Amino acid sequence: MKIPKIDIGKCAACGNCEAICPEVFEIGDDDKSHVITGDFSGLESCIEAAVENCPEDAISYEEEEGEEEEK
Ligand code: SF4
Fold this sequence. Notes:
Layout: E1 2-6, H1 16-20, E2 25-27, E3 33-35, H2 44-52, E4 59-63
The structure holds iron/sulfur cluster.
Protein backbone atom coordinates (compact mmCIF):
# COMPACT_ATOMS: atom_id res chain seq x y z
CA MET A 1 0.00 0.00 0.00
CA LYS A 2 1.24 3.46 -0.81
CA ILE A 3 1.48 5.77 2.16
CA PRO A 4 1.61 9.58 2.03
CA LYS A 5 4.17 11.17 4.31
CA ILE A 6 4.97 14.78 5.01
CA ASP A 7 8.45 16.11 5.52
CA ILE A 8 7.61 18.47 8.35
CA GLY A 9 10.88 20.35 7.87
CA LYS A 10 9.88 21.30 4.33
CA CYS A 11 6.18 22.04 4.90
CA ALA A 12 5.40 25.75 4.66
CA ALA A 13 1.76 25.34 5.73
CA CYS A 14 0.52 26.81 2.46
CA GLY A 15 -2.66 24.77 2.78
CA ASN A 16 -2.69 23.34 -0.75
CA CYS A 17 -2.76 19.72 0.34
CA GLU A 18 -5.58 20.31 2.80
CA ALA A 19 -7.58 22.21 0.17
CA ILE A 20 -7.08 19.47 -2.42
CA CYS A 21 -7.45 16.43 -0.20
CA PRO A 22 -8.97 17.28 3.19
CA GLU A 23 -9.75 13.61 3.88
CA VAL A 24 -6.03 12.99 4.22
CA PHE A 25 -4.22 16.23 5.04
CA GLU A 26 -4.85 18.78 7.74
CA ILE A 27 -2.83 21.75 8.94
CA GLY A 28 -2.28 21.24 12.65
CA ASP A 29 -1.82 23.67 15.51
CA ASP A 30 1.91 23.48 14.84
CA ASP A 31 1.36 25.10 11.41
CA LYS A 32 2.46 21.94 9.62
CA SER A 33 0.44 19.58 7.53
CA HIS A 34 -0.33 16.13 8.96
CA VAL A 35 -1.75 12.94 7.57
CA ILE A 36 -4.97 12.45 9.51
CA THR A 37 -6.12 9.05 8.33
CA GLY A 38 -4.70 5.59 7.85
CA ASP A 39 -7.28 4.57 5.27
CA PHE A 40 -6.24 5.80 1.85
CA SER A 41 -8.53 3.62 -0.23
CA GLY A 42 -10.11 5.56 -3.06
CA LEU A 43 -8.00 8.61 -2.29
CA GLU A 44 -5.08 7.86 -4.57
CA SER A 45 -5.75 10.51 -7.20
CA CYS A 46 -6.47 13.14 -4.60
CA ILE A 47 -3.21 12.34 -2.77
CA GLU A 48 -1.28 12.45 -6.04
CA ALA A 49 -2.82 15.85 -6.84
CA ALA A 50 -1.72 17.10 -3.42
CA VAL A 51 1.82 15.81 -4.02
CA GLU A 52 1.95 17.60 -7.38
CA ASN A 53 0.64 20.83 -5.93
CA CYS A 54 2.89 21.02 -2.90
CA PRO A 55 5.21 23.96 -3.64
CA GLU A 56 7.81 22.68 -1.19
CA ASP A 57 7.93 19.08 -2.40
CA ALA A 58 7.17 18.11 1.17
CA ILE A 59 4.82 15.20 0.47
CA SER A 60 6.07 11.77 -0.51
CA TYR A 61 3.75 9.01 -1.63
CA GLU A 62 5.49 5.69 -1.85
CA GLU A 63 5.04 2.03 -1.17
CA GLU A 64 5.45 1.14 2.46
CA GLU A 65 8.22 -1.38 2.79
CA GLY A 66 6.88 -3.29 5.76
CA GLU A 67 5.11 -2.97 9.04
CA GLU A 68 8.24 -2.47 11.07
CA GLU A 69 11.11 -0.22 10.24
CA GLU A 70 14.55 -1.61 10.70
CA LYS A 71 17.04 0.57 12.45
S1 SF4 B 1 1.04 21.54 0.16
FE1 SF4 B 1 3.08 21.06 1.00
S2 SF4 B 1 3.86 22.99 1.89
FE2 SF4 B 1 1.64 23.20 1.54
S3 SF4 B 1 0.71 22.63 3.52
FE3 SF4 B 1 0.76 20.77 2.25
S4 SF4 B 1 2.69 19.75 2.76
FE4 SF4 B 1 2.83 21.84 3.53
